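User: I'm new to structure prediction. If I give you an amino acid sequence, what do you actually give back? Let's try with this one:
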Amino acid sequence: MIRNTSLYCILLSCFLFACSTDQKSTNKSIEDTVKLFQKKAFENVSDSSLIYLKDAANLIKSTPTLSDSLQAENDYLTGSYYSQIGEIDSAATYFHKTIDRIKDSIKNDREVAYFYNSWVTYKKLQEYGDCIAVAHKFESLLPINNNVYRAFAFYQLENTYIEIKDYKKALSYSDKRIETLQKQKDTLSLISAVSSKTKIEYKYLNNKEKAYQTLENILQKEEQLNDIFKQELFINYGYYNHLDKNYRVALKYYLKASHIAKKISESPTKIENLAKTYANLGEVYLDLKIYDSSKYYLDQATTLKTLNISKTTISNISNYKLRYAYETKSNINEVLKYLDTITKYQNTRYEEKYSKDLKSLEFAYKEEKRLRNEKQEAIIEKLRTQTQLLLVFIMAILLISIGIFFYKKRQRTFDEMSLQMQQRLLRSQMNPHFTFNTLYAIQNTIKKDQQGAINYLLKFSRLLRLILENSTNNYVLLEKELESLRKYMDLQLLRFPDKFEYEIHLIDLEEDDLIFIPPMLLQPYIENSIEHAFKGIEYKGKISITLSEKEEYLQCIIEDNGVGIQSKMNSHKESVSTTLISDFIEKATKQKISVLNKGDRDTSTSGVITSFLIPYKQTEHD
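Assistant: Good question. You get back a string of structure tokens that encode the predicted 3D arrangement of the chain. For your 622 residues, that looks like this:
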């Protein structure tokens, strides 16, 4: 009996061993197939990529004995696919699945990439709470002695807290990052971390002295740095001095940065850094009124290969060239050329965004078709036909729009070139701070008064619509111009509640009269009163606007009870908008704008009275 039992055990063991070997062989075969699918998906992002990844996911699901790392890699590649086609929400979902599969500790650089891409994706979605959670989990799974990646986790937390404007928390993680890198003795990364810290101190916490002291301490160790970090250090030091209007010091360090940039080996990064440096030099020479040198460096920046230069840098160079043309009183064609460059750049940005959105939509449609094809072939055929008709319709609308655009462009005349040039300049230089501040104020109002925030948002959208409508015409109805002016001041009252009040008087006029005036002539003067006249006052400000007929013109009087012209001149330069309007009014009416300081006439009063004539027409096409 014992012998038979022993023989049975031996046979059973052999059988189990054979099964185990066969299972391992099967698992290895499936694992190789999954990796092959993942490789094909990774090699070329297209419709077939998602098919390969889904086939790999089905194989993994049907084989529970496969490792979690294989599933994590498949989720990561799927998230990368969605990220590259612009489906950020789907990418975030798969990246989150990926890091959820990392349980014990981070073992390799690939798993670091999982966490980094998850953090970046949540940051794009502005889901900052998830960003913080990802960074904390990443830091908690690192081995105790891995200071390099721990510093990277602190970098993620530092940047996230900057985004949510908790700058003290950002500074604390910046200090942790520096402390960690000091343990690692990573000099180059340490310099970058210190540079980032100075930016927080200077830009966000307004602790300029500490920021300068930190940078100067690094400058004393200049000989220990490589060229790339020297260039970054010089640009930062020059930039802070530039902001503080220490133009000569800024110029010195910009020049040092440009010398180093030329020595760095050829690469796309070199071209971008060189372009930034030339743009900085062009701007600081403009501030110093050394126009020949400014033109030289801006021309140098223009000659570089634009394919390797970021769109932001190209935009800055174009704006500096426009400023150069204006300040040096270049002829109108030169100014128009730079304005056209800026307009073409903005149009290109919009076209790229549209193309990207269209491409994402196309991918989404194709994926939807493939999934529905598995259920019912007849439905997918109908959807394909509808999609083709939709694309034809979109293309037809695009072609018609382009045709109308070029037709309108061909019909333009240059009879009123001065007015058109000023209007284009005003549109290209509309202050984005007003838009940002209004949206920020609306965001804060949502927390306190949701209905009030909705009302303000409606006013803001209507104001934008009116500005866009008015700015495309040479003349607009008086009624529409006053409507946009009221909406503008109502939104300013959101930013500065109880700061001022306003009133509009019409003498011998009706608001709905058929009177057409050039748009956007009054708004810059109203903005000056709101932004500068009421600074520091302890009483409620008041703006009074009076319009009346005077022969073939409208007489406009804008009066405020602010601090007066002397205080404004000490703290604010005349804007480009008001300068251009003054030139236009003088040419159109043969009379200058009158600006009277009320304090000069009566010391017991304060404020400014601005008076000027506005040309008008009885019909839009006169």
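You can read the tokens as a compact description of the fold. Here is one thing that stands out. The first strand starts at residue 476 and ends at 477.
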